[in-house]
Amino acid sequence: MTYEARTSHAVARIGQPNAFGADANTTIPDESAGPPATNFSPPLDTGSPTIVALDLGTTLGWALRLSGQVMSGTESFKPGRFEGGGMRYLRFVRWLDDLWRFAGPLATVHFEEVRRHRGVDAAHAYGGFLAQLTAWCERHAVPYQGVPVGTIKKFATGKGNADKAAMIETAKRWGHQPEDDNEADAIALMHWAIAQEAPR
Question: Which residues touch 169 (CB under 8 Å, ≥6 apart)?
């Protein structure tokens, strides 16, 4: 496991090649850098439920709240040159199993619910990932919830049709350093999910 401090940003990046897969990238807000420049700042709570937020796709964006800390990253499930198209789904399930072993039992899985796709291939890929995810959740008795894209974007930016740049900028204001819009969408979904929790 390698650590790379990035003091110029309010995050520390942790490379965990064996945690969720060979290409996992993980960002965790650095609490010592002060609160993020936003009104939303979930308190550190080691008793908070472990939840996952996913932006499903061949390049997966994910966010995980574990012991009150939110970490996030991306994972690529693009098939190799000599692999069949189904290999992406096998690797995705293996990644979910690795996540379970790393984080322990999950309280809830939230995923971005996409109703319209730009192409047939994207729609087929999304459907495959969704089928694998929901079957995995059923098998492990983990509650899951799809959240419409517009709901996530409006929560994060105030606009239900916000573009990728706006989502990335919002994630940065929250103290994260997303690699791309997939990670930024997962971060926004995580913040939405935390905001829905009933006060304890």
Answer: none
